[in-house]
Amino acid sequence: xxxxxxxxxxxxxxxxxxxxFIVFFLTNLYPNLExxxxxxxxxxxxxxxxxxxxxxxxxxxxxxxxxxxxxxVAPGYVIEGSDGEIRGRCFNSNDNPxxxxxxxxxxxGDWGFSTVFKEPSSDIIATxxxxxxxxxxxxxxxxxxxxxxxxxxxxxxxxxxxxxxxxTFSIATTATPEYVSxxxxxxxxxxxxxxxxxxxxxxxxxxxSANFENFALPVITIALYGMGYVARMTxxxxxxxxxxxxxxxxxxxxxxxxxxxxxxxxxxxLIAPFTVIMLQVPWLLNGVVIVxxxxxxxxxxxxxxxxxxxxxxxxLLGVSVVSVVVVLITQLxxxxxxxxxxxxxxxx
Length: 348
What we know:
Layout: H1 2-27, H2 30-40, H3 47-56, H4 63-71, E1 78-80, E2 86-88, H5 121-156, H6 161-175, H7 178-190, H8 212-242, H9 245-252, H10 257-269, H11 271-287, H12 289-294, H13 300-309, H14 313-341
Antiparallel strand pairs: 1-2
Helix pairs in contact: 1-14, 2-3, 5-6, 5-8, 5-11, 5-13, 5-14, 6-8, 7-8, 8-10, 8-11, 9-10, 11-14, 13-14
């Protein structure tokens, strides 16, 4: 198991390098850098002035060198601009260049500075990631048990009225996007036009103090959409297991239906849904963009929209790093979980 985990970690690091380089390359294309220069400088800047602005700040260096500097494996640039000012990646204009560190990248904890929020990118990401983590926690608490129960109940008696009803419900929730269900929930349960006003709080206030009134609607909106997919996978897996030969043998031996489900079928039926459940974590991290924007909940997805929309290069790169790491870690946990759920799967 130890060697298996080490091999997987090695593949994860290589994958992370490749993915982050692709994002770095795309965000550092010249049209994006030109837009950044005009946003931070002057929209009426000429092409020569744009070249000068970018050159004074190290943006015109070769891509591999810039990537190494951003990652923290190459020394940060030190450039004397055309205006005589010395600029460097690892120090500010008021700092002494001789006392500045030589390396300052992601590996050293320097994630750059947000040009939109005027704060270090690492502080912004940490704060917003915590808010989204709170939202994800409650979504998983609501979504996973409900989806498993619906899927198991539907799969226990394939073709029954209960199976068809729950399957129809699962398909309906999966087929309804969050921006549709979210708008419906707001109009029916929170808007004064209809008059119910069950949820009077705002999701923005849930950032500081979450309660049922201000946090239920975004949680239910996300949970409903993901729940149908997990429930359908659980139902298909459960229905397949219930037709297996060992289940028929248990029935012939007189084992009660409850014991057949709980002791024989349930564990094997959860192997396939386990992967789907683990994939919900990276989906929730990046897929909450619509819901967080709709309910004005300023979490990780909201920051992603702001960074992309305002061409905030450093913040966008930091968001991509977190997204890549979360996806790779959940895949590692999924692989390890397979071994414990199914003893027939060998690590070798």
